[in-house]
Design brief:
Blueprint (H helix, E strand, L loop, with lengths): L1 H17 L4 E6 L4 E4 L14 E6 L7 E5 L4 E4 L11 E8 L4 E5 L34 H9 L6 E7 L5 E3 L3 E2 L2 E9 L5 E8 L5 E7 L3 E5 L3 E2 L6 E10 L4 E4 L3 E13 L7 H7 L3 E3 L4 E5 L6 E6 L5 E6 L5 E2 L5 E9 L5 E10 L9 E6 L2
Parallel strand pairs: 1-3, 2-4, 9-18
Antiparallel strand pairs: 3-6, 4-5, 6-7, 8-11, 10-15, 11-14, 12-13, 12-16, 16-17, 16-18, 18-19, 18-21, 20-26, 21-25, 22-23, 22-26, 24-25
Length: 367
């Protein structure tokens, strides 16, 4: 009996002495530089490393470390962007040889051992592009990259409701504007976006919920010259893989109007010039058509400052060149959208008898 008891005590002592590896649990805070507190854990281990089940509050965005009870920040082998998902549980074992934490299977985290072969890959495999670096990544991460690669969220649209992208020179943009957007989530998670005034040194206007619409007071600006611009942009925040992605830029550009058409008298002031036609935005050297009609004998073209006529072709008179018949008569001050006088070049063509049917005058400007 005494002999049997001695053997039993020996076995108990042997097992107790051999069992130097324990599994602890904790919640890690931070991003990439993770930290946690675990009761009764006083070292990472000497003869065998400790094993810990860690719940990570935030996803990894690159290489990561873990510090437990302020014992020192230890590298977590094979971690890159997205290897650790937000609120996931990983089982880590301290490797006393390498001095790293290794992600191992189990622990509710679904981790796997890491690939230590050559990198990068030499061919495209599924979603893993040729040349991708895989050494040090977990096998789970590599397989996911092949069969279910992470697809970034993206803006499908971004604009301001009811706002034209081209306005007349002198226009003032102000007040509340309704920004509207669409986002394709793909693999991402987006709850918030930023609205930026790009022109005003990328000023943040609002951080708002990703609900597709936001009424926002903009910075007041007057576009006082041809080609002046005002631009805005949205920026989404992907919380699955911590990253920011820009929308396209919504830009408003100011342009002068040109006026042309048949008229009963020569225009002498701003109102008379604007009465010739509704006006068309002039964006640079172009060709447009003046339809003469068959009731009037005076045809007027009013062009913005610095713009001149290059050629005029009467399409309905066998392509006759009638450039010389459009005579520059001088300038007339035309008020822009902001009430500033602009010296418009006035061209006139006069005929003695009305056309029997309307002619199309093809007019080309020099700039």
């Amino acid at each position: 009996m005494k002999k049997h008891l001695a053997i039993l005590l020996f076995l108990i002592a042997f097992v107790a002495n051999a069992q130097t590896q324990f599994t602890y649990s904790g919640n890690a805070t931070g991003t990439d530089t993770y930290a946690t507190s675990i009761t009764n854990l006083t070292s990472y281990g000497t003869t065998r490393g400790v094993v810990v089940d860690i719940k990570f509050t935030n996803a990894s965005t690159g290489a990561a470390t873990l510090s437990i009870n302020s014992l020192g920040a230890i590298d977590i082998a094979g971690v890159g962007a997205g290897t650790i998902a937000a609120n996931s549980i990983k089982r880590l074992a301290y490797n006393i040889v390498s001095g790293d934490f290794d992600i191992i299977g189990g622990g509710g985290g679904g981790g796997s051992s890491t690939y230590g072969g050559n990198s990068p890959t030499t061919v495209t495999v599924g979603g893993l592009a040729s040349g991708s670096a895989i050494s040090g990544n977990t096998y789970d991460a590599i397989i996911q990259a092949i069969v279910a690669p992470y697809v970034n969220p993206a803006f499908s649209s971004f604009s301001i409701s009811g706002q034209s992208t081209t306005v007349e020179v002198g226009t003032t943009l102000s007040g509340s504007k309704t920004f509207i957007w669409g986002i394709t989530l793909n693999s991402g998670a987006v709850s918030l976006i930023d609205l930026f005034d790009v022109t005003a040194a990328s000023t943040l206007l609002s951080n708002t919920a990703n609900d597709g619409s936001q009424a926002q007071t903009i910075t007041t600006v007057q576009l006082n010259s041809n080609g002046s611009t005002q631009a805005w942009r949205g920026v989404l925040h992907d919380t699955n893989v911590i990253q920011n992605i820009n929308s396209s830029t919504f830009t408003v550009t100011s342009r002068f109007l040109r006026f042309f058409g048949a008229t009963a008298s020569s225009p002498a002031n701003s109102a008379a010039v604007r009465a010739i036609s509704a006006g068309t935005f002039h964006t640079g050297a172009t060709t447009f058509t003046l339809a003469t009609g068959n009731t009037l004998t005076k045809f007027v073209v009013a062009l913005p400052p610095g713009v001149t006529i290059s050629t005029v072709i009467d399409v309905d008179a066998l392509g006759a060149d009638i450039t010389s018949q459009y005579v520059l008569t001088g300038t007339v001050n035309v008020l822009d959208a902001g009430g500033t006088n602009r010296a418009y070049n006035i061209y006139e063509m006069n005929i003695g008898v009305v056309y029997s049917s309307s002619h199309n005058h093809s007019i080309t400007t020099a700039n």
